[in-house]
Each structure stands twice: as structure tokens, then as C-alpha cells.
Amino acid sequence: MNRYDPLVTRTTHAVLETKGATPSELRWAAFHRRAEELPAALKPYVEKVARNAYKVSDEDIEGLKRAGYSEDQIFEVTVSAALGAALQRLERGLIALHESKS
After folding, report:
1. Any residues with CB less than 8 A from the CB of 27 and at least 6 apart, and which?
2. Using CA atoms, how far apart are residues 57 and 4, in angstroms rounded to an integer?
3. How many angstroms separate the first and last alpha carbons of the chain?
4. Torsion sign (Cα): 94, 17, 10, 55
5. pLDDT in tens, 56-101
6. What backbone phi and psi angles, to 5 degrees, belong to 13?
7. Are 59 and 7 in contact (CB under 8 A)?
8. Residue 28, CB half-sphere, CA atoms under 13 Å: how many?
9. Beta-carbon neighbour count of residue 74 at 10 Å?
10. Residue 58 burial (CB < 10 Å; 0-12/13-18/19+)?
């Protein structure tokens, strides 16, 4: 067990399971990038956050606001997608390190 596992678990729970401006199911869908469970307006945004977060622009945020999302909802979806992408990259990196030691 990694010494950071409890922290990762607590952070993941806090982001995805606690009460928020968006339903937990939507945050989980953003976390896992399950496009079929995301509203149409969020699909490209979640993908952009997960793959190329540095490309997210004010126009992306304004587009989501025009689609009816509040700043709190956008924040929660953003954090969920970013956390999912980060943990996926961490897992892949740890696997690569483990395999290189074998």
C-alpha cells in the first residue's frame, strides 16, 4: 500500500461523493470521461480538460455558462475531469515504473 493511498481516497471521495452543485453521477461521469453519460455541452469540455487542460479558454467557460451551467457547476466538472485524468496518468506511470524494475 502506498502511503498516499488514503489521501487519494479522501480527495476522490470529497470531489465525487460530497454534496455539490452537480449530481455525484455527473461528476463520476466526468471523472471517467464516460461521454454517453455527459450532457452534450459538457462532452467536449470534459475531454479538453482531461487531455489538454492548458487549452481551456475563457470562451470554453463562457460557452458553458451560455448553456446554463453556473460557475460552481463548471468548477466541479472541471475538478472531476482533472482528477480522473491525473489519477489515470499516475496509475500508468506507476505501472511503467514497476515494469521497468522487473
Report:
1. 15, 16, 20, 76, 77, 80
2. 32
3. 18
4. positive
5. 999 999 999 999 999 999 999 999 999 999 999 998 888 898 888 8
6. -60, -45
7. no
8. 8
9. 19
10. exposed
72 and 21 Cβ atoms separated by less than 8 Å: yes
Is residue 62 exposed (0-12), middle (13-18) or buried (19+ Cβ within 10 Å)?
exposed
Q: Cell 502511503 sits at which residue?
A: 3
The angle subtended at Cα 57 by Cα 77 and Cα 54, nearest 5°, is 80
Question: pTM for this structure?
Answer: 0.92
The whole-angstrom separation of Cα 38 and Cα 67 is 14
Grid cell in block for residue 41: 455541452
